[in-house]
Design a protein that fits this description.
The protein has 684 residues and is α/β, with parallel strands linked by helices. It folds into 4 domains: 44 residues, Single Sheet (N-terminal domain of TfIIb), CATH 2.20.25.90; 192 residues, Rossmann fold, CATH 3.40.50; 186 residues, Dimethylsulfoxide Reductase, domain 2 (3-Layer(aba) Sandwich), CATH 3.40.228; 113 residues, Beta Barrel (Barwin-like endoglucanases), CATH 2.40.40.20. Helix content is 29%, strand content 18%. The protein contains 23 helices and 29 strands. It has a 7-stranded mixed sheet, with helices on one face. A 6-stranded mixed sheet has the order 23-25-24-29-22-26. A hairpin with a 2-residue loop joins strand 4 and strand 5. Helix 8 packs across helix 12 and helix 8 runs parallel beside helix 14. The termini are far apart. The structure holds iron/sulfur cluster (SF4). Iron/sulfur cluster binds next to helix 1.
Length: 684
């Protein structure tokens, strides 16, 4: 593996969107592709058009304050003074937990770090969580349980290009991160209820009924063992817990699994044989198998399969999860998560609390404990025991949260809603105060991509007048809340140096990463414990991170979706992304080329299912769940399962797919069940 790349030049930066963090160069406001290990010169349509965000007429350039029901321009000082005074009053009258903070997986490492510190030190609240809870938390919990450490891909992306077989579970990179596909050159097995653009390229496509992934993983594991592919030597040397896991999987023979999932037993055996017969192999999971009320166990079942085949920690093979948001990996390491402190430390660990408090210069006992998870936090807003004020950074929860209509109602009960964004997102439009902040190419900062590689984004273009960084805003609020200025620096490099110290000795150790090393082109995958350390592109080669060095099989059994279908709601709805849009669409809907290509929500359905309920191709239909309804254009597709409909979740207002979704939570990760709920389809 090359340890150093050419030093980034002027205008060299990374795409503002997904976790592939493709290299690009900005010349003025023109995007050029740039060779980088994740994209090798490729960009997708979102990346090519990203510069349009920098000149969007929708850009906010002045703070907005709600007066007589309307958002009106105000000066920064007026808006910051107003917010700080209201936060201080809420804290003094109702207690520190009356103020909550909601962050995002697209924020730079520096922002994620300072946001967590701001919440715990300046506000003293436990109530901070972020939208990554909706995105990565089940894979993170399963990775922690199995390996003792969670790094999305614990190997560099280059390894995938040499892998003889890849099993992709619940991921559609052909639309979400197209340049990723060039790394998949071996036999490709795709598990997805839909015939996606990725499944089209697969040698074998298994289409389980939505919500039955865990059963399918048990069936393939059963086939691996029954057909003699189990790597008992690897399991004995490097793992623990196989017997308990097998006691459950033994009862899930492929024919039984076929009855639950709809995937032919022969295809389950074929998948097992393809993986076992490959010289090197990888198993990769995505949101499709993670966003379930049993998401942690579902991912655990795929990890069991990987362990039974001897893949994790074996050179050239492995298990990983495909992080989605731009800083989905870094965003979960630096303390904006309700249960964590920087360095990916547990907030309940007394040693971690003492160490981080010493870096922050505060007494350990002053740090609050764990707060509510994202959905529970949003659901508690305005209730007797819930927060009365909320600050939102880098997130658009009105569109992206499950049961979105209910969440919008909760937001309307707040005494104070503050949103920092660069445009008036759907959530910002409901706010009492909106702060206009910098976006990707206008600010410096680091991101950590899906391989755990730390990247430097340099300032490539000046921000418009009137716009400031989130770091400036946090500093200005902290000072007004009585904090010393030096405790909340606004220079990203200074913040990063403090983050390095706070992470030292933690599971995600960044202490050897410096801006200068990144400017010099060093390729640094964490952990990087010293400034001489070359980084850790491949983890677990000698031992896993549990104290005994062994990975853990998980004794997991199949449970169905939280909401079964019935006569009133006979179809299964699943949600996801399309090529042209990213997350809530707040950014990509502003880019004309992308919005023209995919202007509105659609419901993808088998023609026979559509005919049965009396809706026609290209006509309009209502998709109705127990929580709400979405108005969508019908797209008939004969490759769809008869029992399933699909909606993309990028659209606002009555087009929100998340008006339908079920907030049933995974017991470990508190991940909501975005990927399956019961609905009916009816003519509009
Ligand atoms: Fe690359 Fe993702 Fe940006 Fe597309 S959206 S150019 S795949 S980083």
């Amino acid at each position: 593996l090359v340890t150093r790349l050419a030093a980034p030049g002027r205008g060299d930066t990374h795409c503002p969107y997904c976790a592939l963090q493709c290299g690009m160069r900005l010349t003025g406001t023109t995007v050029e592709s740039r060779d980088f290990p994740t994209n090798r010169g490729g960009l997708c349509q979102k990346g090519w058009t990203a510069a349009e965000l920098l000149r969007t007429p929708a850009r906010l350039t002045t703070p907005l304050v709600r007066v007589d029901g309307e958002l009106r321009p105000a000066s920064w000082d007026t808006a910051v003074d107003l917010v700080a005074a209201k936060l201080a009053r809420s804290r003094d009258v109702h207690g520190a937990d009356s103020v909550a903070v909601f962050g995002g997986g697209g924020l730079t490492n520096e922002k994620a770090y300072l946001l967590g510190k701001f919440a715990r030190v300046a506000l003293g609240t436990a109530q901070i969580d972020y939208n990554g809870r909706f995105c990565m938390s089940s894979a993170a919990a399963a990775g922690m349980r199995a390996f003792g450490l969670d790094r999305g891909m614990p190997f560099p992306i280059d390894d995938l290009a040499r892998s003889a077989a890849v099993l992709l579970v619940g991921a559609n990179p052909a639309e979400t991160m197209p340049p990723f596909l060039q790394h998949l050159t071996g036999t490709l097995i795709v598990i997805d209820p839909r015939r996606t653009a990725t499944a089209e390229r697969a040698h074998l496509h298994l289409r389980p009924r939505p919500g039955t992934d865990l059963a399918l993983a048990l069936g393939i594991l059963h086939a691996v063992v029954a057909d003699g592919h189990y790597r008992g030597d690897y399991a004995a040397e490097r793992t623990a817990g196989f017997d308990a896991a097998w006691r459950i999987a033994a009862a899930w023979w492929p024919e039984r699994v076929e009855r639950v999932t709809g995937v032919a037993a022969s295809d389950q055996r074929r998948a097992a044989a393809l993986l076992a017969g490959a010289r090197t192999a990888h198993i990769l999971t995505g949101r499709g198998t993670e966003q379930h009320s049993n998401g942690t166990d579902s991912v655990g079942a795929w990890i069991n399969l990987a362990l039974a085949l001897g893949l994790p920690g074996t050179p050239g093979s492995g298990y990983g999860c495909l992080t989605g948001q731009g800083n989905g990996q870094g965003g979960r390491e630096h303390g904006q998560k309700a249960d964590q402190l920087p360095g990916y430390r547990k907030i309940t660990d007394p040693d971690a609390r003492a160490y981080v408090a010493s870096v922050w210069g505060v007494p350990p006992e002053s740090l609050p404990g764990p707060g509510r998870s994202a959905y529970e936090l949003l659901d508690s807003l305005g209730r007797d025991d819930g927060p009365r004020a909320l600050l939102v950074f880098g997130s658009n929860v009105v569109v992206s949260a499950p049961n979105a209509g209910h969440i919008a109602d909760r937001l309307s009960t707040l005494d104070l809603l503050v949103v920092a964004d660069f445009v008036l997102s759907e959530t910002a439009a409901l706010a009492d105060v909106v702060f206009p902040v910098t976006q990707w190419a206008e600010e410096g900062g680091t991101m950590t991509n899906l391989e755990g590689r730390v990247l430097l984004r340099s300032t490539a273009i000046a921000a418009p007048e009137g716009v400031r960084s989130d770091l400036d805003l946090l500093r200005d609020l902290a000072i007004r809340l009585g904090q010393p200025e030096q405790r909340f620096p606004a220079d990203p490099e200074v913040v990063f140096d403090e983050l390095r110290r706070a992470s030292r000795g933690g599971p995600a150790d960044y202490s050897g990463v410096t801006y200068q090393r990144l400017r010099d082109g060093d390729q640094l995958h964490w952990p990087v414990p010293t400034t001489e350390h070359p980084g850790t592109p491949r983890m677990f080669l000698d031992s896993f991170a549990h104290p005994d060095g062994r990975a853990r099989f998980a004794a997991v059994d199949y449970t169905g979706p939280a909401e079964p279908v019935d006569d009133e709601y006979p179809l299964l709805a699943t949600t996801g992304r399309v090529l042209q849009h990213y997350q809530s669409g707040a950014q990509t809907r502003l880019v004309a080329e992308l919005a023209d290509a995919e202007p509105e929500v659609f419901v993808q359905v088998h023609p026979d299912t559509a005919a049965r309920v009396g809706v026609g191709d290209r006509g309009r239909a209502r998709v109705v769940s127990r929580r709400g309804e979405t108005e969508a254009v019908v797209r008939c597709d004969p490759t769809m399962r008869l029992d399933t409909v699909f909606l993309p979740f990028h659209f606002p207002g009555a087009q929100r797919a998340n008006l339908l979704t079920n907030p049933a939570l995974d017991p470990y990760s508190r991940m909501p069940e975005f990927k399956v709920c019961a609905v009916r389809l009816e003519p509009s």
